[in-house]
Amino acid sequence: MPKGEILAGFLAPHPPHLVYGENPPQNEARSEGGWEQLRWAYERARKSLDELKPDVLLVHSPHWMTQLGHHFLGVKKLSGKSVDPIFPNLFRYSFALEVDVALAEACCAKARDKGLVAKMMRNPNFRVDYGTITTLHMIRPQWDIPVVGISANNSPYYLSTQQGLDEMDLLGKATREAIEATGRRAVLLASNTLSHFHFHEEPALPEDMSREHPFDMTGYRWDMRMIELLRKGKTDEVFRVLPQFIDEAFAEVKSGAFTWMFAAMGYPQIPGELHGYGTVIGTGNAVMEWNLAKAAA
Amino acid sequence: MTIVAAFLVPGSPLPTLRPDNAPWAALVAGYKKAGRALAASKPDVLLIYSTQWIAVLDELWQTRARVAGVHVDENWYDYGDLPYDIPVDRALAEACVEGCRAIGIAAKGVDYDDFPIDSGTIVASGFLNAGAKVPIVIGANNLYHDFPTTAKIAAMAAQKIAAQNKRAAVIGIGGLSGTIFRNEIDLAADHVASEADDAWNRRMLGLFEKGSASEAERLSADYAKAARVDMGFKHFAWIMGALGGRFKGAEVHGYGPTYGAGAAVVEFKL
Ligand SMILES: [Fe+2]
User: Fold this and answer.
1) Strand partners, B258
2) Which of A166, B34, B87, B234 is within CB 3.0–4.6 Å of B135 for a Cys-Cys bond?
3) How far is A160 from chain B (nearest CA, A)?
4) Ligand 1 mean position to A13 CA, how many Å?
């Protein structure tokens, strides 16, 4: 079996508003659009993903929060209706996905080898979280590529940002080893928003874009600073300021997906491609790509 | 009397999923006693707050006439499923949405099939409301609401209950000390994570038993901080709000661990 590889990593945030704005048949709620800049960003990312032809998509989501270690979806076929508990008015989505159980098991075993608590989720009635589903829909609405779903252990919140992110770093390294050992051609999806302060009330028409803007200048400045560093490939600098970004912009990257993805990719100092940026109820969201296959060519 | 009974109960699904595990037996037995006490109080409605139903935008109220389905806990999926089928008192829930708005708190009803009902609401309803005979009203735990705001919402709900001439049991669902074990443990050896947590829990339960309502309320913030209490102990705020800040005493029907966290089934004497 040839050695597996990570083809690319995407920063792929999960506001359900993007699915709502798109009006796919799977979503019950209907809109007159909205959040086009971000949806067009995802359109570009979809095209790029399509060209990569990966065997598997791995997604780390903050909305499957676990307290006892890092968990992996471990049932071959999962389906159901996902209703967002925060935005049930926008997101009621019927999904069916296929899990790459062998790769998930390999990730879980490698994570254990590194001293992490790791578990396989084997309950067929399990409801996949809306973060995972939104990210997967936005990047690949055809649902024709198997996935590995990874929970966000609550360590960055429960212990400390640093201890938590150290665990995510190990989890990323374990993920890479598992991908290599199983011969998979994989794409990683970090399901994270950047600045995360948000408005506390929704407009009567949720897609009223005259009401959509960054929550505050602090968060916006931080987002631009981080994106600019990422666009220049200054990965070391990004991770140096990450804890401060998390504190000052309440950034959702605290939950670990971003660190997990970069650790798996080996913290490449290559320019990230920004597919687009936009806010959702005031939070900052960037769709970005690190195409390792292209960088190596 | 509008509020005819009041209970503080755990939201962990573990005692429901593994009732025969020895360290959880006290909670199961306590829940059963509380269930009998609740039935004896003959409520028309259960006014529920569960720390695990999380909201961030508005104060949400369940307004679906009947919530039913099979829930799988995102942490404890190994131990089995949580089926539920519970009627909702829509008229009261809708009055609570309006009532929130009238006191300056943005609120919304939630009326969707397959809306995820939290583990706490399901396990408490299972123990306390066997056969789902009594309709419920559930208010969400808005993360931006503090202890006093939570109490204020519950007080408003109690007024609506009075206005509708109903008898209600108020139920705050959540844990006590919040330190959980982060490695797999032998379930049969589960215990409250530290002596300090255990002492804090017992101190708070002692105040309940003595009927020291205002002292318990005053101590809540320190307790929440020192013992990492589940969601700032806002489930107690809910009870205090509904009771107008008063109770005469309490009976602790059960106390024990849930994977290191503290939990108790408490019936307040009104
Ligand atoms: Fe999120």
Assistant:
1) B261
2) B87
3) 14
4) 8
Instruction: Determine the distance separating the centroid of ligand 1 and the alpha carbon of B90, expressed in angstroms.
Output: 30
For residue A168, give the 3-state DSSP assignment: helix
Q: Per-residue pLDDT averaged across A226-248, rounded?
A: 98
* pLDDT recorded at residue B190: 98
| Per-residue pLDDT reduced to its tens digit, B166-216 | 999 999 999 999 999 999 999 999 999 999 999 999 999 999 999 999 999
Indicate the class that CATH gives domain B3-269. alpha beta
Distance from CA of B45 to the nearest CA of A (A): 24
> What pTM does this model have?
0.95
Q: How would residue B233 be classed by pLDDT, with cut points 50, 70 and 90? A: very high
Among A242, A68, A103, which residue's Cα sits nearest to residue A174? Answer: A103
**E strand or H helix that includes residue B234:** helix B234-242
B183 touches chain A (CB under 8 A): yes
CATH number for the segment(s) A5-296: 3.40.830.10
Nearest to B75 among A68, A117, A202 (CB): A68
Nearest CA in chain A to B112: A88
pLDDT at B1: 58
Q: Chain A residue with minimal CA distance to B73?
A: A126
Q: Which residues of A touch B (CB under 8 A)?
A: 64-69, 80-81, 83, 85-88, 92, 117, 119, 121-123, 125-127, 129, 151, 155, 158, 198, 200-202
Encoding tokens for residue B206?
A: 């002692």
Instruction: Provide the pairing of β-strand B45-55 with A70-73.
Output: unpaired
Q: How far is the CA of A10 from the centre of ligand 1 (A)?
A: 16
Longest dimension (CA), chain A: 55
Domain ranges of chain B: 3-269
How close B183 comes to chain A (CA, Å)? 6
Domain positions in chain A are 5-296
Residue B144 contacts A, CB cutoff 8 Å: yes
Question: What number of other Cβ atoms are within 10 A of residue A274's Cβ?
Answer: 17
Please give the helix or strand (H or E) that residue A131 lies within, else none: helix A130-139
> Angle at which helices A101-113 and A161-182 pack, to 10 degrees?
130
CA separation for the pair B50, B119 (Å, rounded): 9
Residue B72 with chain A: CB contacts under 8 Å: 123, 125-127
Q: How far is the CA of A88 from the centre of ligand 1 (A)?
A: 14
**What ipTM was assigned to the predicted interfaces of this complex?**
0.91
